[in-house]
Amino acid sequence: MSDKIAVRTSKAPAPAHTFSQGVRKGPFVQVSGQGPVDPATGAYLFPGDVAAQTIRTLQNVKAIVEASGATFDDVVMLRVYLTKREDFTIMNDAYGEFVTANTTGDVLPSRTTVFTGLPREEMLVEIDAVAIVSG
Fold first, then answer.
1. How many CA atoms lie within 13 A of 88 on its CB side?
2. Rounded CA gap, 44 and 66, in Å?
3. In whole numbers, what is the pLDDT of the chain averaged over residues?
4. Does residue 31 contact residue 73 with C-beta atoms inside 8 Å?
């Protein structure tokens, strides 16, 4: 049985509380929910701009996936949490652009989108991921 290991990278924001950026156990990787945070400063970016927040959030997810030894192609599931239903189309367009640009081949990750409150008022989007390391 493989050990559970914390995934850490300076290319994504440090955890805001008592959790890991990601956890890998065997080939499975779970990325904790990420937001539109600058990894270097910890500042929340792009207030009011759900498209820019979506891209920054996905960049943070991708950095953690890559720190685990996986690639974005290894992502099998992304969960998107939005604060406002009216932001769905804008998020969806930005999400589609990022995921298409960062996936090779025809198989895109599965996705669920949920409308909910988020921990910080300036957060319009949060995204987590599951990846399975190939090889």
1. 7
2. 22
3. 96
4. no
Burial readout 65-74 (b: 16 or more C-beta within 10 A, e: otherwise): bbbbebbbbb
pLDDT in tens, 34-93: 999 999 999 999 999 999 999 999 999 999 999 999 999 999 999 999 999 999 999 999
Residue with tokens 């979506």: 54
In 8-108, DSSP assigns E strands to 22-25, 28-34, 75-82
Phi/psi for 82 (5° steps) reads -120, 150
Distance CA 58, CA 42 (A): 16
Both tokens of 50, joined, read 């759900």
The alpha-carbon radius of gyration of the chain (Å, integer) is 14
Residue 89 burial by CB count (10 A; 0-12/13-18/19+): exposed, middle or buried? Answer: exposed
Long-range contacts of 92-96 (CB under 8 A, 24+ apart): 93/51, 94/50, 94/51, 94/52, 94/54, 94/55, 95/54, 95/58
The answer to whether the beta carbons of residues 22 and 31 sit under 8 Å apart is: yes
